[in-house]
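Okay, can you check this protein?
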Amino acid sequence: LRDFNYDYLHPLLSFAAAHVPQNKHKETPLYILCTAGMRLLPESQQTAILDDVVTDVPLEFDFLFSRSHAEVISGKQEGVYAWIGINFVLGRFDHADEEDATVEVTTGSQNQQPISRRRTVGIMDMGGASLQIAYEVPGAISFNSPEEAGKCMLAEFNLGCDVDHTQHVYRVYVTTFLGFGGNMARQRYEDQLVNNTLAKNRFLSTQMGLSEDKPYMDPCLPVGLSDAIVRDNHTVFLRGEGDWARCKDAVRPFLGLHNGTMSPGGVYQAPINFSNSEFYGFSEFYYCMEDVLRMKGQYDSDKYSRAAAEYCSTQWSTLKQRLDNKLFSQQADMGRLKYQCFKSAWMYEVLHSGFRFPTDYQSLKTAQLVYDKEVQWTLGAILYKTRFLPLRDLQQETLRQNHSGWLRSSFVYNHHLFSLCILVVVLAILLYILRLRRIHQREQRQAEALNLLWAEEGEALLP
C-alpha cells in the first residue's frame, strides 16, 4: 500500500517540481488532501498512509511540507472548497461595483452594520453516488432545538487577509446526500422494484415481471426498451413505458422527504432567497440537460420538462438510430440513452421537491466548464489554505519598500553631504589661494617700495 500510494503521488509531485522554479521550492507550500476514497478506510489505515506520505515526500521533494499539510478532508470541507473555487473564478470575491448584484450580509457583531458586497453563487453537484449543495447564508440563523444539527452544516470562514476585518467573512451552508447521486438513486429504485415485484407474486400469485412475456412496465425507461434486473438469483423483466409524469411520481419517494426536507429524519436546509440568488449545477445536472437534450446553460423548468417528456415517450429504436447518426453530444452513450428518462426525472424532483426551488426559478445555470476551464474543489482548497499569505506578502513588500525608500533617501542625503564637503574644501582652497595671493602681492609691494627707497638713497650719496 505504501509503494502504491507513493507511485500515485510521484508523477503529480514531479510535475509540480518541474513547473515551480527550483529556487522557490523551499517557500512553496505543498498540501496533500484526501477525499471520499480515504474516508472509507478505517482511521488507523488513514493515519498510517498519511504518516508514510509525510515521511517519503521530503526525501525527494523540497517543498514546504509538514504533517499539518496532509489530511483527510470531510465532505463538508470538500463542498466549501468547491464553493470557493467557482466563486473565485467568477470574480465574486472582488469588491462590488455599482452595476453588480449585491446582498446585505450580517457580520454577527451587534455593533457593526450589515455589509453590502457582491452576490455569491451557490453550487449543486450530483455525481453517481452522492449529491452536494453549498450556498452562502447572508443573514443570521436562529436554531431551534430540532434544528441543532443544522449548525454542523454551516461553515464560517475568512477569505480576507486580516482576521480582524469582516469584509470577506462568509457563512456557507453545505451538506452531502449519500445515495442521492444518479446511479445510486436508480439502484435504490430498482432494488425496491424487485422487492415489490417478488412480494406481490408471493402474496397475490401474479407473474408480472417474472418473465419476458409479462414484463413490469417501467415508466422511467424509454418506450419499447426491454431490460432485466438481477438481484440474489432473482430476475425481474422490465419494459419501457416512457411516462414522464408517472416517472416523477415514482422517484419522488426516494427523496426521503421529512417535514419538507430530504433524507430520513430530515436534514436541515438553510433558507434560500430565491429572488436574489444564483446557482450553478454541475455533473448530472449538466449531463441531464446537455448529453441528449442539448439544453446546457440557463435552466428553464417548462422547456426542460417538455424536452424530457418528449424524450421518454420516444421509441427506443428511434433513440438508438439518433445515436448512430450522432445527433446527441459526443459524451452520450447507450447507458445515457437508457437511463436519461429516469435521471432527468430524478434531477427535476431533487431540484424542485427536495431543495424546493420554485418552478419559475430563472437563475440556475448548468455547466461543465467555466471560462473554458474545469472548476474543481482543489482550486478552492489551495485558495483557502493560502488565504493569509497575501497579508504576509504585503507586509514583506511594505518592508522592502520602506527599506528601499530609506536607502534611496539615505543615498540622496549622503550625496548632498558629500557635495557640501567638496564645496567647503574647494572654498577653503580658494580662500587659501586668495590669501596667498594677497600676501604675495603685499610682499611684492613692500619689496618695490624698499627698492625705490634704496634707489633714492643711492642717488643722494652721489657727489
Q: What stands out?
A: The CA atoms of residues 11 and 17 lie 10 Å apart. The chain is about 45% helix and 15% strand. The mean pLDDT is 81. The longest strand covers residues 169-178.
